[in-house]
Amino acid sequence: MKKIILFLSMILPVTTFAKLQVAATTTDLAAIVKQVGKEQVEVFAIAKGTQDPHQVEAKPSFMVKLRSTDLVIAQGLELESAWIQPLIQGARNPKLTGKDGLLELAVDLEPIEIPKGDVSRAEGDVHPGGNPHFQLDPVRLGKAALLIAKRLDELEPAQKEFFQKNAAAFQSEMNEKLKNWQERIKKSGVAEIVTYHKTFSYFCDRFGIRCNLQLEPKPGIPPTASHLLAVIDQMKKKNIKLVFIENLYEDSVGEKLKKDVPGVRVYRLPVAVDGEPGVQTNADLIERIVKAVEEGGR
Amino acid sequence: MHLKSCRIGMFLWIFALGLNAFAISAPNMSANALLLYRNSNFHKEDTNFTTPDQTPNGFDVQETELQFYADVDPYTRLSMLLSIAPHYTSDGTSVSEEWGIEPEELFAESNTVPNITFKVGKFKAFMGKHNTLHTHAYPLIEAPLANTYLMGDEGLNDVGVSAALLIPTSWFNEFTLQYLRGKGGNDEFNSPTPGEGVGLVHWKNLVDLSEDLTLEVGASYASGGNSYRKDTVLSGADLTLKWRPLEGGRYTSLLWATEYLTRTQAQADVSDETGGGLASWLQYQFAERWAATYRYDNLKVTNSFDPVNLPNDTWERHSLALTYAPSEFSSYRFEYDQRHGGPVNSNGDTTEKVFYLQANFTIGAHPAHAY
């Protein structure tokens, strides 16, 4: 009996303090999980910061990682629909196959740009539930932290207060920085930006910048010569001098714009944590973009 | 199962009526259409009323696939893939076109069993790498010679059961056991002995050599009774290197795959028939919408039991294709194949030269990014 108790006393601490294993589909979500879970959670990101999350391949090595994962956190709204289910199925992990195994966040974060009427691929690779790229909005990031904490609580009720406190701290940090970012953007005087894809929509919406012109003629469709001419025409008419190209995309389009639009400033920017050296947190990422707005407005 | 065009039309109409109700619980539905123009010095179907060519020259619908999958309940998911394709028949004086619809795959898989996926139904057997691909995902328009001539037009595809175990190692290490009836279109088996099916094992390994580069190595073996009351044995090996950089992977990637497949058939009192072939292809994506593919494949057959359809010869083929994909949901491919050896055409030509133009369209659920 003593041996059994000794054995249990040896393994129980391990069991009690085993870290939750979380997979995040993007580096942005992984960064939030790190803030919420801290030392109680181990997290890895499937899509890297320099990868287009629409285009990730279902590499079997991710199935191996998902085999011992307790939870997958995704942005949702079909951003990862081409690869997340094959990965989960390939992992053969019963924890993930049920509804509770996959937490999709964007649907609960008041998505914008929800297409009206019939959704057709004639409009490109549209997301019927709305734009999934909320990672550049500090307010939604804060709310996402609360949603993540809620699900982590369910998996590890003993750490409920810990997760809630960390999520609240993250949300406060985001809200605090928001004021500073809003002031700086207002001061920059930038009113409209051309972007490659609709990755910046939530950022623009939050900071009162118009981002209605995209270099893609339709979502997921590479720029065409005729569309670029139309964009250049609009830029000249509206006197738009700032272009943001997500660094997932090649910059040859930017070079063309520099030639054809006098005085234009083109920035290739990260749109995910780890998207470039030095961008290690969600705040770093937004700070990087706010600085680009400031520079572009000078 | 072959139905007349009107019966297929009625089937699709009834099917479409049911889609709306079905869609709520089963959103994963898609359809794929392959349209093909072929110009070959071998395909002269109009002159042969006894055995009409099933792959004639000219414009044709190569195949249409309807795919559905959804969870049945918390424990099981069901996948169904229906293939609709034209079929050519002859009344002795003229060739007519008929349309056939058949379940290319229809299987249920376990959803909650740890480490193992159990599967039951009709499915593409895990015999090598290419055999598991659907037509619209082929790297080139035709399957490798060894796949087509040693396992049939549809490959090794049969009703059976499967268990795929993910072995707990640090790399992807999967061991699959399958048992098939050995019936249907699988002429290399079809044992007349009741209950004599086909056993198959496959071992797949995939290692990340770096974040940009993966190496996949697989081995397959299948054995079962054949129609000569002896055994047919299939074995194969495959190796794939895939490179897609984390930065710029949208615009450039490279894949090199090589597969070897061999078949030995036995019958009483004669030497075993042997056939074996290699296929090696290189696919280079050089721009966001463009990719070029080259493949070399061969097949060597000795002691053939059916020298008319499977001549004792060494066949070799070179294929070169250029693919343009305006979006994830459509692509156009121009391909040139040159084959030497094997069947001879009505003019006595021993070299087949084929030009293809293929259009590939998908509607419905977002296609999964298979690796």
Task: Report on this structure.
The complex is a heterodimer of chains A (298) and B (371). Chain A is α/β, with parallel strands linked by helices. Chain A folds into two domains: 19-106 and 119-172, Rossmann fold; 179-297, Rossmann fold. Chain A is 46% helix and 12% strand. Chain A is built from eleven helices and eight strands. In chain A, helix 3 packs across helix 4 (84-91) and helix 7 runs parallel beside helix 11. Chain A starts with a helix and ends with a helix. The longest helix of chain B is centred in the first third of the chain and has 19 residues, at 5-23. The relative contact order of chain B is 0.13. Chain B has a single domain (2-364), classed as Porin, CATH 2.40.160. The model of chain B is unreliable at 1-6 and 20-24 (pLDDT under 50). Chain B is mostly beta strands and 371 residues long. Chain B has helices spanning 5-23, 145-151, and strands spanning 2-3, 28-40, 58-73, 76-90, 95-110, 116-124, 157-166, 172-180, 198-208, 213-225, 231-243, 253-265, 273-285, 290-302, 314-327, 330-340, 351-364. Classes of the chains: A alpha/beta (298), B mainly beta (371). Chain A binds chain B through residues 48, 50-52, 55-61, 63-64, 67, 78, 81-83, 85-86, 89-94, 97-98, 121, 124-125, 220-222, 248-250, and chain B through 74, 77, 109, 111-117, 166, 168-172, 174, 206-208, 211, 214, 244, 246-251, 288-289, 326-329, 363, 365-371.
